[in-house]
Give the backbone structure.
Amino acid sequence: MTQELNRRRLMQIAAAATVLPAGFAHAADPLKVGVLVPMTGATAGDGARLLKAHELAAKQINEAGGIAGLGGAKIELMVADTQSKPEVGRSEAERLISRAGASVLLGAWASAVTIPSMQVAERYRTPFIVTSAVTDSITEQKLQFVFRVSPKGSWAAKDVIEFIGFLRQKGQKIDKVALAYEDGPFGQTVSKGYKAGLPEKGIAIVAEETFRTGSPDLSTQAAKLKASGADLVLIVCYVDDESVLLRALAAQQYKPMVLGYGGGHVHPTLLKLGPLVEGAFGIVEWMEDVKKPASETFVKTYKEAYGEAPLSNAAQAYASTWAAALAADAARSREPLAIRDALRKLKLSSGPASLLPNDALAFDENGQNIVGNVMSQVIDGNFVTVWPEAVASKPVKFLK
Amino acid sequence: MSGFRTVAIVAALVVAAFLLALSDRYYMDVFILTCFYGALAVSWNMMAGLTGLMSLGHALFVGIGAYSVAWGASVQGWPPLVTWPMGVVIAVAAAAVMGMLCFRYGLRGYFFAIATLAFNEVAFFSVSASVALGRSDGLILPTSSEDSVMMLQFFDKWPYGLIIGTVLIATLAIGQYLLTSRTGYYWRALRDNEEAAEALGVNARAYKLRCFMLSAGISAVCGAFYANYVAFVDPRSVLGIDLSIQMLVYSIIGGMALLWGPLLGAVLLVPFSVLLRNISAMQGSEIIAYAVLLVVLALILPQGIAGWLTARWRRRKAAPRPEGFASVAAAEKSA
Amino acid sequence: MTFGIFLQAVVSGLANASIYALIAVGLTLVFGVMRIINFAHGEFLMIAMYGGFFAWSLFGVDPVMAILIVTPLLALLGMALYGGIVRLALKVPEINQMAVTLGLSLLLQHLALVLFSGDNMLVTQPRSTAGIVLGPVVIQVTHLIACGASLLLLGLIYLILRRTDFGLVMRAVAQSRDGAALSGIDIASVYKWAMAVGVGTLGVTGPLLVSILYVNPHVGALFTLKAFVIVIVGGLGSFGGVLVGALIVGLAESIAGAWFSASIAAAVPFAILILVLLLRPEGLMNRSLAR
């Protein structure tokens, strides 16, 4: 409901701004929001996309007249490059808060950079909204100033189990599941969740194959996966290794159902593989065709602004920017402590921040947004949301 | 210029910088990082510049120090009082084993460098696979909102500045002490001509080993500090080759022939990259500027900035002599 | 693990080995002649991979054909590298040389990031997913092509070094720089050509590798260290050593990967390197290309 009110207030200010002299509307100091993203290093491409979403949200907020609760103050993004390095992220978080006077921080892509950065924010008693890092422990340390828009990595197991149940209901035979993951921070985190969660529900993991980024030949792993006779292969890796693995599977003439985890599995690069990925599933935090009004508006404006489709993490970045602005609005304050308190009470069931696939963007007592994942499938060369049915845009397509 | 006087001047500058940084948390952060990288580079250069042992795997010792503290704190609840010495002991022992193997088989130059790199990589991948050490996810040190001297946990930054500033000054003092002792002369003799030194009765293996162990120990102290300061360690940040390369870069740009040369490199480059991050908008421009600087300086100032400065200084003192009389190599003697 | 899987691991190790050999041969050639270790070798590989990618994506040139375009370009780059940087680097101490090439590697990676963004680019052709079944094992067609090219290229370089005047001069310089200079060989020109050939070989590797893998600005760095391991295991500057080193590293990594986790497998080449350095520091094949 707060959200509704806020929207109305934003509208009023927007109307007011058109009649008042420009100088007046700009009189208020901006709300300074620090954004930590990797702009160099191996994940620079992801950082650039996150930034686009942050900037889009800021632009919309400012064009709608700024933050009403702060007398129409604009939101000002202060962007810092973490270089994908923990100590740089840490020191940039320090700078954004103590030098640049950020009221709230957003970021910082990878967990390894997010963890030290958010600890800085905690010590400074400044709220930090984690956009996309999935390491469970981030919201398990009883930190008072850390909030997370993205789900915990281990929750994927729960969604996968439900999805397998759903596929079985539809008459698919899924008895054996195999795991293939990148043996680095990302793959290890998510696969740990799978390994703990699946056997509990009676789904046996019949093979576990690992590889490291940049391996030119994955045919041994592919052969072992094939030998395991798995009906479904759960893949956890970045888009680069995924292409190598899928090609190796195809060369073995082994066509199991595959379900990849994370943004890498709904990445446009993957579609270049053509028929190879047709029918492949992906578990991801958000999809551009998620059936929610906020989501549809976001996709439309994002495409207009940048001429490309947004990826899942862009939605999280967008939601986090709006959450920061709306919390400052509700708090009627730029004070980090007041914004923190407002973030705790935030419940956004409509409006731009509600584009993620849960009922409302809200943070529990650990700062965790209770949000699940959606399942995508490549149908006719496009990524399509097929599950949960409430937000699905098309039914699952079965190849066999 | 006597070496101890130089160290005293440098120490005074460190103290002055610390006092200036007290005014502002962010300056203190830059001060801390500069001291951290400075102490690491000085310890690395004790091997490379002063004894002629080029290591590309020094991150291994930083990692041992950092992981000892992080594992001790997060898994066992041990205080730094226990884990710092533990890290140093393990690192020194590791250096002893590596050194004995490498020196016994006479590895030098590139070969020694690559061997240390290989040890580092084995450790990197082993930690990445070790469940007890948190695999690639790393270990988070438990933090609480209360300051704790026992756990080296402070809200203010100055205690961290105090610690790492002390480590840096102690490193310089130890280095200077050893350089003026017999050990230091042997080290330089080994660097300049190992065969000749051995012919004169220097036990090359023992002195190289001593240098390696000392350098590893100091690096481990820095690593232990890193773990307490950042409160998070993962293989990439404390065991990655990037860290070893940073030590090399600071030393080369600062000047390897002098004890304080690498510190100068860190003093110039750490704030330089912070500054570039602040002012530049183009992605990666900081690293591009940094890389160009590295290539150019390594090519045109083989003695580094410190070597160049001391050569100029000497030249000025010897003003009546014709230009170019003081050779750059003279700079080495002042170390 | 069944025998079939073991065989597959061997085949996969051979495929990797042939790619590694293609990358390492240029590195060892440059070291053999000039005694300089080029830490930016992987970045030139990255450039060659972008070359192969753009030849395919912009002009529809098959990566195998793109070799004919990319190789001369890389050779020119190698000459420019010599003229612009390496020529000067030869005058500074070993450790500065390392710093120079490390700096160059950083520079090229980040220039590529500015030019091409950090995204992965893929070459997709019908043969990307094709495999040839040989009993219990499958070999991917793109890998097979790389194997063939690797053998051809290594054979060609061997012949050049052994049978031509150019190779003779090159070997003379590798054996004794001063001796060669005294007998009237233009050292600078030999160095320039060694660099051209050393970097030029990547013009063959790049297009083939990009059709197997993908390309992004940091992809080359994944291979630089491995190439070092190979040339040192085989013997720095030794031509046959590259083959031996590549085989050992490729096979060990692949077979270890079939048993253990990938992180453990990744440590294996370095463990082998340590053993080789300790037991036989000159490398397994100590016949440098001089002899």
Q: What stands out?
A: Residues 287-291 of chain C have pLDDT under 50 and may be disordered. The first helix of chain C runs from residue 3 to 34. The CA atoms of residues 50 and 147 of chain C lie 21 Å apart.
